[in-house]
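Aim 2 progress. For Probable RNA 2'-phosphotransferase, the working sequence is reproduced below.
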Amino acid sequence: MQQERTVKVSKYLSKHLRHQPERIGLTPDEGGWVEIDALVAAAAAHGFPFTRQELDHVVATNDKRRFAVEGTRIRASQGHSIAVDLRLPVATPPPYLYHGTVARHLEAIRAEGLRPMNRHDVHLSPDRETATRVGARRGRPVVLPVDAATMHRDGHVFHVSANGVWLTQHVPSRYLRFPAPH
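Predicted structure tokens for this construct:
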């Protein structure tokens, strides 16, 4: 499968499994799962045909493991803006997690901390490298270390998705380490 096609199918899956399943006539269950055959048929009916083999390739090769397959069903691993309950167990985070962003967001983050915005949870990375890649999608990355151990000790709840993304409702700015001003 061509890389360009892989990216297009992946973006299509993300859009319709995380944000707009109704646009192609899908109704995920409470856990965000849809039948793969229904997804493939709906995509074809709405002008974006792909095969089960292409879908399997996208799932297997996605470096961020954005999708989970269970039997005949598929869902996005996290990042939904639609109402879903991923039923992720509560997890004890490592001492530090990381958030990738860009400089233009730092003032708001200092004032409000990290908020989920249009998603259900704040997404945190387990390492600086991953957070750097996340931040780089929007420009020159800035990585903010998160004192996850102290947050957890203070009662904040963490979950970890199947693809290793750490999730929490909010990260108050007192738990963040900001870069020194230039």
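The mean pLDDT is 94. This observation will guide construct design in the next reporting period.
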